[in-house]
Every structure is written in structure tokens, then in C-alpha cells.
Fold this protein.
Amino acid sequence: MLRIALDVDGVLADTMRTWISLWNRSSDQKLSYEDLSEWDFWRRLGISSGEFMRLMNEAWRLWRRIPETEPNLSEKVSRLKSLGRLDILTARPRGTEKYTLKWL
């Protein structure tokens, strides 16, 4: 049986759009989605990984605002599931688990 694994952040859920919205509301340094050219872009903003994660956790508390990464994603995921076992993975902290499950 084929096993397929999909990550939540950045693969299914476009969390960075919500993160950017939160950042832009609280900072004078405005950021666009196109500015995300590397994984650790937050270093260019002069913030710590802890501050990045704090905003990411806040984004998940606003889970209704997080868009899918592409149109018709649930149909595409269903098609993948028909090919074998499908696992949804994440490294989200326990504190955001309930929001992640609601989003899914």
C-alpha cells in the first residue's frame, strides 16, 4: 500500500498569509508574501525565532482566516487518499492542536 504524508503549514494551510497580516498590523516594517524568499526570512526582520513562533501560534488561534494553499485542495487530498494511506503531519505545538484540527 502506498503511504503519503502531507505537512500542514505551507503544504495544506497557507499560514504565512495570516502571519504576514498579524505582522503588518503590529510592525512598522511592512511585509508582503513575495518577500518570503527563504525559510528564516524572519531574521531579516530583526526578530527571534520565539517571536516568529508567537505570531505563528496567534495565526493558528485565528484558524478561520488561514486559507488553503491552492483551490479545491480537499478534493485533491481525497484523490491522494484513494491511492493508499494518507497521513497529515505537523510540528505545531500542542497549544495549537485544537485549532489545527478545526482547520482540517
Observations:
- The mean pLDDT is 95.
- The chain is about 40% helix and 10% strand.
- Helices lie at 15-26, 49-61, 73-81, 97-103.
- The radius of gyration is 15 Å.
